[in-house]
Design brief:
By secondary structure, the protein is an alpha+beta fold. It has 2 domains: 2-60; 65-195, Umud Fragment, subunit A. The chain has helices spanning 2-14, 21-61, and strands at residues 63-67, 82-87, 96-101, 104-112, 117-120, 126-128, 131-132, 152-153, 158-162, 180-181, 185-194, 200-201. Strands 1, 2, 3, 4, 9, 10, 11 and 12 form an 8-stranded antiparallel β-sheet that branches. A 4-stranded antiparallel β-sheet has the order 7-6-5-8, with no helix packed on it. Strand 3 and strand 4 (104-112) form a beta hairpin. It is rod-shaped, with a radius of gyration of 35 Å.
């Protein structure tokens, strides 16, 4: 009798145990999730690669990152701040423009365009074509170091630029820099990226 029971137990061991249907469904769901997750990751990686390529293209073709060097544009821009220039040759009066000079990019404010008449009095009041301009971005008006005789007419195809810190800025008032040719212009400042507490669009 015992031998028969042992034989029956051995037969039961030989028959593979079929797992419950719920367990099979759970395992199937796990495999489907893993496959779906991998596919999603690949899709996200592909999208990020495309976005990164577009950003790099835009950054090199449309925008330029510049670190401010010095305080000639204070209080508008401080030493060490990082700004973004939109690359364009079309700048207007009042824009903070970047232009090439001596192998680097300088940042100054556009005061007058081609053939405008510029005048600066002893108190630092700036007139363009006979009209005193409003300059709310200045902390202090100052004639500063000036090598020009006023009124001064801006040559054709050139721009008259000044730093906002008139007392120390080296700009179109000085013969070594003078007026800026349109070919020198890189673009205009549109955004302050650093520091975070001053981040924002610039007008």
């Amino acid at each position: 009798m015992d031998n028969e029971k042992e034989k029956d137990n051995e037969k039961e061991k030989e028959i593979p145990q079929i797992p419950p249907i719920e367990l099979l469904q759970m395992e199937l769901a796990r495999e489907e999730y893993k496959h779906s997750f991998r596919k999603t990751l690949l899709n996200i990686a592909g999208v990020l690669a495309v976005v990164a390529a577009i950003v790099v293209l835009l950054a090199t073709r449309l925008f330029m990152l510049i670190q401010v060097n010095g305080n000639s544009m204070s209080p508008t821009l401080a030493d060490g701040e990082i700004v973004i220039l939109r690359q364009t040759k079309e700048v207007e009066k009042g824009d903070v423009a970047g232009f090439y000079y001596g192998g680097r990019v300088l940042l100054k404010r556009v005061i007058g365009g081609p053939e405008d008449y510029i005048d600066i009095d002893q108190d630092g009041n700036v007139s363009v074509n006979g009209k005193v301009i409003d300059e709310p971005y200045l902390d202090e008006k100052n004639l500063g170091k000036c090598e020009l005789e006023f009124p001064y007419q801006v040559p054709k195809g050139m721009y008259f630029v000044l730093g906002d810190n008139r007392a120390i800025s080296v700009d179109s008032r000085i013969a070594s820099i003078g007026c800026v040719q349109s070919e020198q212009i890189v673009g205009k400042v549109v955004f302050r990226a650093w520091p975070l507490n001053r981040m924002g669009i610039m007008h």
